[in-house]
Amino acid sequence: xxxIIPAIMPKNYEDLKNKxxxxxxxxxxxxxxxxxxxxxxxxxxxxxxxxxDEGVFSSDPYFLAIMNExxxxxxxxxxxxxxxxxxxxxxxxxxxxxxxxxxxxxxxIEAEGKDQELLEFIEGIDFYIRDNTQIGIAINPNTPIxxxxxxxxxxxxxxxxxxxxxxxxxxxxxxxVFDHIKRLRSEHExxxxxxxxxxxxxxxxxxxxxxxxxxxxxSAIFKSGDIHGAIEEFKNL
Length: 237
Hints:
Blueprint: E1 3-8, H1 13-23, E2 29-35, H2 49-54, H3 61-67, E3 80-86, H4 94-99, E4 102-108, H5 109-112, H6 115-123, H7 127-132, E5 134-139, E6 157-161, H8 177-187, E7 192-196, H9 204-209, E8 214-217, H10 219-222, H11 227-235
Parallel strand pairs: 1-2, 1-8, 2-3, 3-4, 4-5, 5-6, 6-7, 7-8
């Protein structure tokens, strides 16, 4: 059975807290979509337009409290956090993301520009960090799979995006994701594959049949009207 990972696009800290509270005890891992408004049009906590205009990473008081080790992410004792880094220059801010308590970090190949630089960055991450934090690479459906092949030996998993217009929940499913899954499964059998975007009760069975290990699900859980029931139904597919 694939791992079910609820995906949260936090409008603010309270929104993040409320959503994590609603799935607490039901799953082991939650994905938090971090968007800086540069790589994607959308922006999520802890980023703000004001901070971007001022050239500040984030001035959010909850974020700063976490950075100063006075607070942690909501319910950090009960869930692990996977941070989906839909941001520019994510490697430059690795320390921030680690201080948020990330157990998994997902870098987007399209956000980083130069594959070789990203490869060298991941290879250079401290061994202690790598022992405690999984590193994944995400790829959009319209990006050739060849772009991530040099990285497969240095990452722990691949996140195949199931939608073209990333940064939004409820977007239509992009069938091209199956081409990526098929190629990865046939040529790199042992790699862990996640799919994020467009995962619902219609697409999930097909993704499971294709050999996906993790399903990252946003609106099909949080807009279902029955969060507990939706998660249990996905687990029973």
